[in-house]
Write a structure and sequence with these properties.
The chain is of the alpha/beta class. The protein is built from twelve helices and nine strands. The protein has helices at about 35-45, 70-80, 95-110, 130-140, 165-175, 240-245, 250-255, 260-270, 270-275, 280-290, 295-305, 305-330, and strands at about 5-10, 55-60, 85-90, 115-120, 145-150, 180-185, 205-210, 215, 230. Strands 6-5-4-3-2-1-7-8-9 form a nine-stranded mixed sheet, covered by helices on one side.
Length: about 325
């Protein structure tokens, strides 16, 4: 199957300093699954052999638990002309001086971006002042920083009911941080905004999990969906896993149509009939497509008559993504 991934996320560990109830990977301080240093180095080395991949994301769990190794991994990325991004909850920013020193060391190694995850769940475990320390230090260094806000309801963000968090997000925005709102993977009603959209992540953002397997997506339910696993790096290379992936119209359809449209069309015969009532998280919809055998068979029939449209849109989409990724590097 022809993919042009532009990003690879390394889930370095499932261990985390927090234990958020709705964590997509169920991370907590007791989890021990972690990629070894040699495995992470191997992933970076192999990623450098995939010309379309421009960015490596270190995430978890909490990747700052890797200590000095994290600095070494960032430095390796830089030596391979790969951009690097770190996703963290900011637990380490206990003071201005300590947070500045940690970020300065990472920036010297070549770190391009810091993402800090915040929200009512995260702040049960990370003090709000630590977030200010992290943002102030990043701004002083000139490090591009994004604040990922956990959103419990699509279009109805519960974080803004907390005045301290609201004030912090506003402060971060005023200081040049990019603010993003990520819908958490919950069973609650998501109907306040449309989830009927293509899946940008399918084939574009790869994931390496702590069991050393490569996933073709970075979605919230990717670890639950074996159909999105390309295979293990234990006995295969990343390049081989990508090249040897067979053509899969369903994955193409998920990318260009999105899970919601596929489920609605197969259930109602027309996306216009119930588009306003669709309330599943997109990643839940993707999991449902593969989980239910009856749905899967119905969906296979659904895509047969749309093969030409799917392939044409798929080709157009990945070419557009490739161009946009390369333009962003200029």
């Amino acid at each position: 199957m022809f993919f042009l991934p532009s990003m690879l996320s390394i889930v370095t560990t499932y261990q985390c300093t927090a234990s958020c109830d709705a964590c997509c990977f169920k991370c907590n301080p007791l989890r021990k699954e972690t990629l070894s240093s040699s495995q992470i180095r191997n992933v970076i080395e192999q990623t450098a052999d995939i010309p379309s991949i421009k960015t490596i994301v270190f995430t978890g769990g909490e990747c700052f638990l890797l200590g000095k190794d994290l600095v070494d991994f960032v430095e390796l990325c830089s030596s391979k002309y790969l951009r690097s991004r770190i996703v963290s909850n900011g637990y380490w920013a206990t003071s201005i001086s300590s947070s500045y020193n940690r970020l300065a060391e990472l920036c010297e190694a070549g770190l391009d971006e810091l993402n800090i995850s915040v929200g009512e769940e995260h702040q049960k475990y990370v003090k709000i002042e630590y977030l200010y320390n992290a943002v102030n230090s990043a701004c002083a260094i000139g490090l591009r920083t994004a604040i990922n806000v956990e959103t419990r309801y699509t279009g109805c963000n519960s974080i803004y009911a907390n005045s301290d968090l609201k004030q912090f997000v506003e402060y971060a925005a005023l200081n040049g941080c990019y603010i993003s709102h990520g819908l958490w993977n919950e069973e609650e009603n998501c109907s306040q905004i449309s989830t009927i959209q293509p899946c940008f992540h399918m084939g574009q953002a790869l994931t390496v999990s702590p069991d050393y397997k490569v996933k073709i997506c970075c979605g919230l339910t990717v670890m639950e969906n074996d159909n999105l696993c390309l295979g293990s790096l234990t006995n295969r290379t990343l390049k081989n896993l990508l090249v040897d992936e067979p053509e899969d119209l369903l994955k193409m359809a998920i990318k260009v149509y999105g899970p919601a449209k596929i489920l609605i069309d197969t259930e109602t015969g027309s996306s216009e009939m119930s588009i306003g009532n669709y309330s599943k998280h997109p990643c839940k919809g993707c999991l449902e497509i593969y989980d239910k055998v009856s749905n899967y068979k119905a969906i296979e029939q659904y895509i047969i008559g749309r093969e030409f449209d799917i392939i044409q849109k798929y080709k157009t989409t990945i070419i557009k993504e490739f161009i946009e990724t390369n333009e962003s590097m200029l």
